[in-house]
Amino acid sequence: MKIDIKELSENVVKLIGDHWMLVSAGERGAFNTMTANWGGMGYLWNKPVVFVFVRPERYTYQFVEKHELFSLSFFAAEYKKTLGVLGTKSGRDMDKMGASGLTPVFTESGTPAFSEARIVLECKKLYSDMISAENFIERDILEKWYGGTKGDFHRMYVAEIVGCEVKQDKNE
């Protein structure tokens, strides 16, 4: 069921941090997905937005870079093991979709998502920038997550939430 994003009643910190999400981009026949738990949702530039982080080394990166839209798919707890596999295997090396058992679906705009997801956000890129060592105020984070100044930094994407679909609870 499509809803206005302002009607989403989930705890987004728990949703992203504990339940994780799939970041997916591409088109029919050529797409990829990756598990992520770094990101957030909010309101910026008078728009509902998400921000997510993708390392250039990830296969999904090229799809996010190439396409204007991407999706974030959120799942029930029983999919955590599947999301773990999708976060550790590369679509360059194997058929992640086939191995995952998830069913790809596409939004009206052609953005990939998954039928098993309980929440799907379709997102339009507004801004991106590389994380850089010199901008860290808390230097311990730089050391812990990037191994210092020679780390493999993420690209941050800020994207407008242009669509939100939520599966209705069977008890409703």
Automatic annotation (TrEMBL):
Pfam families: Flavin_Reduct. InterPro entries: Flavin_Rdtase-like_dom (IPR002563), Flavoredoxin (IPR052174), Split_barrel_FMN-bd (IPR012349). Residues 21-171 form the Flavin reductase like domain. This is Flavin reductase like domain-containing protein. GO terms for molecular function: FMN binding; oxidoreductase activity, acting on the CH-NH group of donors, NAD or NADP as acceptor. Belongs to the flavoredoxin family. It comes from Mucinivorans hirudinis. Gene3D superfamilies: Electron Transport, Fmn-binding Protein, Chain A.
